[in-house]
Amino acid sequence: MSAFSGLLHGFSVALSPMNLFFGFLGAVIGTIVGILPGLGPLGTMALLLSLTYGMDPVAGMILFAGIYFGAMYGGSTTSILLNIPGEAASVVTVLEGYKMAQRGRAGAALAAAAVGSFLAGSISILALSFMAPTLANAALKFGPAEYFTVALVGLMIMSRLTGGDLLKSLVMMAVGLALGTVGMETVAGYLRYTFGQPLLAQGIDFLPVAMGLFGISEVLMTAEEPGENVALQKVRFRELWPTIAEWKESFWPMVRGSFTGFLIGLIPGPSPVISTMVSYSMERRLDKTGMFGKGAIAGVAGPEAANNASVGGAYVPLMALGIPFTPAMAVVMAVLLIHGISPGPLLIAEKPDLFWGVIASMYIGNVMLLVFNLPLVGVFAYIIKTPLYLLMPIVLLLCLVGVYSINNSILDVWLMIGFGLLGYVMRRLRYDVAPLVLALVLGPMMERSFRETMMISGGDLSVFLTRPISGMLLLVGILVMVVPPVVSAIRCRISRASAA
Amino acid sequence: MRKSEIAFAVFLVAVSAVYGGMALGMPRGHIAYPGPGFFPVLVGGFLLLAALACLIQAALLMPLNGAAPHVGPPRAYSKAAQLLAWLVGYGIALKPLGFPIALLLFVFAAIRIFGYRRWVFAAGIAAALTVLSYVVFVAWLKVPLPTGPLGEILQG
Question: What is the ipTM of this complex?
Answer without folding.
Answer: 0.90
